[in-house]
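Model: You mentioned two targets. I'll fold them one after the other.
Researcher: Yes, keep them separate.
Model: Target one:
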Amino acid sequence: MKDIRTILRERATGTTITAKGWARTRRDAKNATFVELSDGSTMTGLQCVFDGAATDSATAAALARVTTGAAVAITGTLVDSPAAGQPVELKATGLEIIGECPADSYPLQKKAHSLEFLREIAHLRPRTNTIGAAARMRDEMAYAVHTFFHDRGFRYVHTPIITASDCEGAGEMFQVTTLDLDAIAKRGETVDYGRDFFGKKAMLSVSGQLNVETYCMALGKVYTFGPTFRAENSNTTRHLAEFWMIEPEFAFAELPDDMALAEDFIKHLLGWALDRCGEDMAFFEKRVQPGIIQMLDSVRNTKFAHMTYTDAVAILEKNKDAFEFKPFWGCDLQTEHERYLTETVVNGPVIVTDYPRDLKAFYMRLNEDGRTVRAMDVLVPRIGEIIGGSEREYRYDVLVENMKAKNLDPADYWWYLDLRRYGSAPHAGFGLGFERLL
């Protein structure tokens, strides 16, 4: 059995087919009944037309039970459609109701629903146009990620989800334990993590980067793509407790190489979305975010601008009255700062480099000035930061000092330091949050 996307693409008129899916709508006319059928394979539904004069009583009775959301199988002959906007339709002769959907209690009807309402019925919202389109885009973009890296000789590796190492050094991690912490607290005892499953405190990973570096130092060019977790108390639309992260790492690379890879990666992903996902992108353009197609097309066809953090702050300080958060050297750039740089100053994407060392993680390579590190953030219009990366600190002594400056115990990272003891080499990488990309 072919899905509706294939049926509409092949347009094999004159053939008898059976299409299965869920009824979006049923419309009764004087001499015919129209059922729009969707199976999730495409935004477009298949129009199924039942001729009133040719429909037997059993089929007519079944048709009366077809409501929005019902699962059905419809058999008929594929014919050219006289209606505008649809190349073919199904001249239906048979109908099987697989699963009824009571109209009086089904919360999704043929009308617009707010995203807040859909959050309350997360188990049903994939059936809506918006969430269905987002799911198809997620699938396509995951494929695009793997295609990009495999075409460039990167190996896909899997890194641990449960870890004892805090990659970012911020301590905002979800704990994993088999101990009954409530019972221990009631007894007034001190928690002994030596009795825990791993014999020490364990957390959900905030990043696969430290582990992916172990493979980088063996395979040269690698990437990981998997779930990460952040226990940040950030009630914004940009911060999630659980999300997927794409993290490439490649050996014998410095910051300029990292910047070039990040730019190529973003342009590849945007090109994939625009060239292969036209139907869903057109829906987003019309119903969700007008102007999105033009913006993405502009980004993919624009050379990314480069500026240092110091230069960026100097520009922002000249216009500080425009911001809620006043910029100064040493501040963490806010979304409003990032959008100003991309939308007002550059009018396009920009890569900001060489951030103050105090703002960045311990593993970023220290510059000669001792104040900044070889870090980069890729900023794009409307969103702000979408990629963060750096050249890694591959000098053993400097890395140890960085750890101490961040109040990290080098003994906890002995294996990471081993990478700097045995055959250390320059390397670089970055992280792209998959949900933020979407």
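Model: Target two:
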Amino acid sequence: MGLTGLFEGYEPGQFFDEAVDGDGTARPHYEALVRGLEQMTPLELNERERVRDAAFRSAGITFTVYGEGEGIERTFPMDLVPRVIPSDEWDHIEQGLIQRVTALNRFLDDLYVGDRAVIKDGIIPKWLVTSSEGFSRQAFGIAVPHGARCLVAGIDLIRDAEGTYRVLEDNLRNPSGVSYVLENRAAMTRVLPNVFANHLVRPVDHYGPALLNALRRVNPAGADHDPTVVVLTPGVYNSAYFEHAFLARQMGVELVEGRDLVVDDHVVSMRTTHGLKRVDVIYRRIDDSFLDPVVFRSDSILGIPGVMMAARAGTVTIANAVGNGVADDKAVYAYVPDLIRYYLGTEPILPNVPTYLLWDKEQRQHVIDRMDELVVKPVAESGGYGMLIGPAATDGEIEAMRRRVEADPRGYIAQEVVSLSRHPTLVDDHLEGRHIDLRPFVLCGDRVEVIPGGLTRVALRKGSLVVNSSQGGGSKDTWVLASPDAGRRAGTG
């Protein structure tokens, strides 16, 4: 179908466009959305944006950007043109994510409570694992029920110039953003109800109960059949505090800080107005180093003294498990396809982005010679910080990165620049293409479940490849279409 109305003049550009074919027609799974939006004027859509912003402010849907004064709290930007994923495409993504997270859980269990067969068999170097910033010797011997060390995973996906889905990175410690998935969906059903109603969109509003079920499933052996679950937050000044409070409400459990919990005789209890109440499962949103001042940072006032001994005694489960950061180290990422083959005996469904390991002398020299063409990333950073995008960098920035790489080759990886797919995005009174990625969320409960959709992040700055909210990015609602024979229409999902 030809493009008219709001889409008139839209240019997909020289990238893979999610909504529009190279010949300028809407892709089949976008036709209904395009028809619906074509009936609206830019003025009408701008008015819907104001309604959205007012709702977000009222609900306190914000994030904090640090480094600008003392930290600025902002309403999370959400674009009103949703991303649409057809059911067959989602099936492929889902299978690939289940495969990947299953292998990562087995790797972590092998590493911390197994016999390290993956190292003994030469699949991944021991020195690489033990030198990772996310590796934790304090986690040795602490088992997690059902081996669900990555109880919640956020796997970042991109699409390249051919439309192939690739894994950009794994987030296995405290992946954030799922609150925006749920709030974006609620906003879309209020702001564009007629457009939403014309699609068979799979729901996401079961995430809270699904997360609670997954957390209850990892209750310690011998715990009560109705385990007490809490969400542990660093406090109101954390950039993701809104999400911590949101998830506690969604699950109907207590939101606590470290000072609310106490360990006695290797049992964790929560202070209440009725006295101490035993805690069985802690969904922690605190980094490893702040979790227990007895074994990690002694100056931490955010954690719980003695909680690691309680976990070792098997009286409490910490989710996600301590030490998961070794598996989302960007250097270990390069080995994940081999981990899938080793643990599951299958070929990876979702490929990695081509990656260079800079401790290898030949690969390092190749990267230094082509640094103006590549992306160079520190292995332990997140949020888009500290990386170099070669084609957009100055000579001085490239030289500074070269010196850092040569001083610490283990601390960096390099990747080919991937032309991230683009998506129509409202810019003032018209649509322009903006680069996007996708962070689906994976739960390891009774089964490995992928929440349909996830957080589509969009680089709102023209030409930018950095989608992180801390770097000026926003988000879109992600509609996974039910198969035509599903026979049901999603409600407020």
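Researcher: Noted. Anything on target two?
Model: The chain is about 30% helix and 20% strand.
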